[in-house]
Design brief:
By secondary structure, the chain is an alpha/beta fold. Helices cover 43% and strands 13% of the residues. It has a five-stranded parallel β-sheet. Helix 1 crosses helix 2 and helix 9 packs across helix 10. The protein is elongated and about 60 Å long. The N terminus is likely disordered.
Length: 224
C-alpha cells in the first residue's frame, strides 16, 4: 500500500465505520420486527461479516421510532453462569431464583409496549437465560432480534419458531467488491486508489471485520 508521512492517528481521529452494502438485509430485519405478526428475527452469517453491526443499526433505527430496546451480549465468559448475560437486567433476588426471574420478565415485558430485546451470539446463552426466551416470546408486544453463526445453533424456543416459519432468518454474506469500494470511500472520506482498494479486497475477502481492522491498523501505522 502507498506509504504516507502522516503521523499515526489517535482513536479520536479514526474514521467512523458506516453500515454499507446491507440495505436490503436491514430493511428485512426492520420490516419483520415492525410487522403486527412480527415476533423474532435471527441474523446469521460467518464471523466478521457484520451481524452485530447490522443488529446495532436496526436497534438504533427502532429506538429513533420510539421502540424500547435492550441489548444482551452473550459470550464464553457468561456461558456457564446462570443468568450471566442478563444479570444486569434482573433484580438481585431473581438472579438465584429462576422462577422469580421468569416472573420479572413477564411483568417487565407486559409493561413495556414496543419492546425489542437484542441478543448478540444467542447460541452462547446459558441454559437459565434461555429459559427466559419463552416468556419473552409469549408476550405479544415484545420482539426478539438475535445473531448466531447459523440458524441451527439457535436455542429453543427461537429455533422452534424458525422451524415453524414464525421467525425471520436474515443471512449475511461477505461484502461484494462494490460494497468494499463504497465502504472504504465512506469511511475514509474520499476515493481510494485502485491498487489500495484491490489490496484490501484481496486481504479481507469481503469480511467486514477484517477490512475494518486492516484499515484502522494501516491508519495507526501511517501506511495508508
Amino acid at each position: 500500500m502507498p506509504t504516507s508521512t502522516l503521523l499515526p492517528r489517535s482513536a479520536a481521529d479514526r474514521p467512523s465505520w458506516p453500515l454499507t452494502g446491507r440495505r436490503a438485509e436491514l430493511d428485512r430485519v426492520l420490516d419483520a420486527l415492525r410487522a403486527e405478526s412480527g415476533k423474532a428475527v435471527l441474523v446469521t452469517g460467518a464471523p466478521g461479516v457484520g451481524k452485530s453491526r447490522l443488529a446495532r443499526e436496526a436497534t438504533e433505527r427502532l429506538a429513533a421510532d420510539g421502540w424500547t430496546t435492550t441489548w444482551v451480549a452473550a459470550g464464553p465468559a457468561t456461558h456457564d453462569t446462570p443468568f450471566g448475560a442478563v444479570a444486569h437486567l434482573l433484580p438481585p433476588d431473581a438472579v438465584a431464583d429462576p422462577g422469580r426471574a421468569v416472573e420479572h420478565v413477564r411483568t417487565a415485558v407486559s409493561r413495556t409496549p414496543r419492546l425489542v430485546v437484542v441478543v448478540d451470539d444467542v447460541q452462547l446463552l446459558d441454559h437459565t437465560t434461555v429459559s427466559l426466551l419463552g416468556p419473552l416470546l409469549d408476550a405479544a408486544p415484545a420482539r426478539l432480534l438475535a445473531t448466531a453463526p447459523e440458524a441451527g445453533l439457535a436455542p429453543d424456543p427461537l429455533a422452534g419458531l424458525w422451524r415453524a416459519g414464525r421467525a425471520e432468518v436474515v443471512e449475511l454474506h461477505r461484502l461484494d467488491d462494490l460494497a468494499v469500494d463504497t465502504l472504504l470511500h465512506r469511511a475514509l472520506g474520499g476515493p481510494v486508489a485502485g491498487a489500495t482498494t484491490l489490496a484490501f479486497l484481496d486481504a479481507s475477502d469481503g469480511n467486514a471485520l477484517y477490512l475494518r481492522e486492516m484499515v484502522l491498523g494501516s491508519l495507526t501505522a501511517g501506511t495508508l
